[in-house]
Amino acid sequence: MDTKKLYADQIIDPSIGFHYAFIRSTKLTSELHTHDFYEFFITFGGAVIHYVNGQSQRLEEGSFVWIRPHDAHYYERIHTECQILNVAFSSEMFEALTLYASTRETIQQFHSNDLPQVVHMHELDRQHLKLRLEKLALSPVTIDGESMLQFKLILLEIWTKYQRHRLQVKSPLPQWLKALEETLQHKEHFSAGIERLFELSGKNREYVSRSFRKHFGLTPTQWLNRIKLEYASNLIQFTDEEITQIALDCGFENLSHFYHLFKNQFQCAPAKYRKLMKKPVIPEYQ
């Protein structure tokens, strides 16, 4: 099968820095191809076979995959139709962001793996991300580069959550840690704090701490704060609740600590994040 090459200058809108597509049928996807840009895609509504670099991957609903320029790939339906959210962006943008947000070793590992890593994305996160990207793609382009800035913030958030920390995993997660990770996605558990994490693990604290550092490259507290901050960012964007109340609801009793952690993770203060992410799709006229 011949390999087609896709080019950024033919696909990506330079005014916003990315190309968004929600593909409702694998019949509408490209044949075997590579690119001179990066992309990520997320599967909705069913499973699909992903052929990449001469191998096949069965991707279930909710699979998140980051595609590098050298990856040669295409899709093939199984039984039910699968929908695919696809976002393409320039190599220059990706490399600048990852250089800022990652170590040299993490970036090298990302590029050297034979296959792109597959990560499961929870349904709520999928729907929120789809809404944010659609909103941004449909918004009027601003002359001050705000649309591109918003996309960079989203991209940085995705890299931090769905790629960078996963690359630090040196071995498969043990079953108890998989179960703990899943359980702690629920607000009633993560907002209860670090003691709830240790309680739910059923293991001693020292063993849990060693396991988190081994598999996630983070301490349990750092990992839990990341989960809490991701939930807080969704509330900040999609609700009008006071930011101080959001922080408390997410389990942050020290507000200055919350603001410090939020700015470190999202590169701006919560109020600015809300302003950037709540830009209306249709402008309001006086």
Shape: globular
What's the number of extended β-strand segments? 10
* Rg of Cα set: 20 Å
Instruction: State the CATH class of the largest domain.
Output: Mainly Beta
**Percent helix range:** 40-55%
The average pLDDT value, as a whole number, equals 85
Q: Please tell me the total number of domains.
A: 2
By DSSP (H or I, 4+ residues per run), the number of helices equals 13
Name of the CATH architecture of the largest domain: Sandwich
Low-confidence stretches: 280-286
Pattern of helices and strands: EHEEEEEEEEHHEHHHHHHHHHH
Q: Indicate the CATH topology of the largest domain.
A: Jelly Rolls
Question: Beta-strand level of the residues, as a percent range?
Answer: 15-25%
What is the makeup of the main sheet?
A: 5 strands, antiparallel
Spatial sequence of strands, sheet with the most strands = 2-9-4-7-10
Question: How would you describe what is shown here?
Answer:
There is one protein chain. The chain is 49% helix and 17% strand. The protein has helices at 8-11, 91-101, 104-112, 123-138, 146-167, 175-183, 187-190, 194-201, 205-216, 220-238, 243-249, 255-266, 270-277, and strands spanning 4-6, 18-23, 33-35, 38-44, 48-52, 55-59, 63-67, 73-77, 83-89, 118-120. Helix 2 (91-101) packs across helix 5 and helix 10 packs across helix 12 (255-266). The protein has two domains: 4-148, Sandwich (Jelly Rolls); 175-277, Homeodomain-like (Arc Repressor Mutant, subunit A, Orthogonal Bundle). The relative contact order is 0.10. A five-stranded antiparallel β-sheet has the order 2-9-4-7-10. The longest helix is centred in the middle third of the chain and has 22 residues, at 146-167. The protein is α+β, with helices and mostly antiparallel strands. The protein is built from 13 helices and ten strands. A hairpin with a 2-residue loop joins strand 5 and strand 6 (55-59). Mean pLDDT is 85; it is low at 280-286. The protein starts with a strand and ends in a 9-residue tail after the last helix.
